[in-house]
Amino acid sequence: MIDIKSLTLEELQGEIEKLGDKKFRAKQIYGWLHEKLVDDFAEMTNLSKNLREKLEQEYELTSLKIVQVQESKLDGTCKFLFRLSDGNVIESVLMKYHHGNSVCISSQVGCRMGCRFCASTLDGLERGLKASEMLDQIYQIQKWSGERVHNVVVMGTGEPLDNYDALLRFIELLTCEGGLHISQRNVTVSTCGIVPAMRKLADEKLQITLALSLHASSQEKRKSLMPVANKYDLSEVLDACRYYFEQTGRRITFEYSLVGGVNDTEEDARELTALVKDINCHINLIPVNPIKERSYVQSEQRTILNFKNKLEKSGINVTIRREMGRDIDGACGQLRKSYMDTEK
Ligand code: SAH
């Protein structure tokens, strides 16, 4: 069955004409799906009963079910566990900032990238998410909270550029006029550095922000933390970042998870400065969130501040990621992992 929520308006028009109905119906259906966010064809009350029944027979309507919500008492951050129609579970996070609500979504069920400190990858990759499944994380969260979502970051479980076509379709549907119409500038896609896909994305000339998970200032160290570095050398990855900026004019975000005693020395900060100083960028330092399956620990608070000061003194834009939801299963993939472990 065709997944109706993954179709663009144009594609939907083609489908409705095939069903022998008027083209303008497609626009109505699109509005029900992407603006009014309904979960059932029966709710599309301005369509004839006959058409609703036809839709029901011919199309699948993706709708994620909330399994669990964890709300932080510290900052209101909410973690959601959703069940997909095939039984898999995924997680998403709602963060409330002064500048608006931000949702962090998953792009895959599991992940095959193998980053050493990340919980999302421990059980490998199950499958990529469909565009509708990425969208519906945002739709369900917006409905649950009753508040508009302003920013979307594709930084949850999975490697978005390992699910390229669905990701692009998702961005189109999320940012187009007939849907939530979120500005491309308010969308960030985070990658571990799949070079050909980064270049392809640059050529799409979108206005989204590309975030690169850098995490180390030398090829050797990066290899020890991120298996993907065996495939793509650090210099190639940085060249792809430069290319992204050339093509889009969008400043790159580098994510750098500080791991105690691994990548947090003054020498690391110096090397990092040299590495990125000719790139129009912003560095986001993330104190590593320890997971029980690995022995990595967080850097000391003064080491983190010292690292940040060193970069700042060299004229680099840098922030320390505010830790949201410390009291809930905050780290990437932790909630899903703990849920699945108890289910087993
Ligand atoms: N696959 C994408 C998105 C993943 S998650 C990517 O690699 O960028 C978003 C960020 O969180 C990445 O930078 C990832 O490396 C980082 N991350 C994952 N687990 C973490 C942990 N336990 N502590 C700190 N950062 C973590």
How much is the radius of gyration in Å? 21 Å
- Identify the CATH homologous superfamily of the largest domain: Aldolase class I
The CATH topology of the largest domain, please? Answer: TIM Barrel
Named at the architecture level, the CATH assignment of the largest domain is Alpha-Beta Barrel
**CATH top-level class of the largest domain:** Alpha Beta
- Distance between the amino and carboxyl termini: 30 Å
Order of helices and strands: EHHHEEEEEEEHEHEHEHHEHEHEH
Shape: globular
Total domain units: 2
Low-confidence stretches: none
Mean pLDDT: 95
- How many strand units? 14
Strand content: 15-25%
Widest sheet, order of strands: 3-4-5-6-9-10-11-12-13-14
* Helicity level: 25-40%
Structural class, from secondary structure content?
alpha/beta
Count of discrete alpha- or pi-helical segments spanning 4 or more residues: 11
Bound compounds, please? Answer: S-adenosyl-L-homocysteine
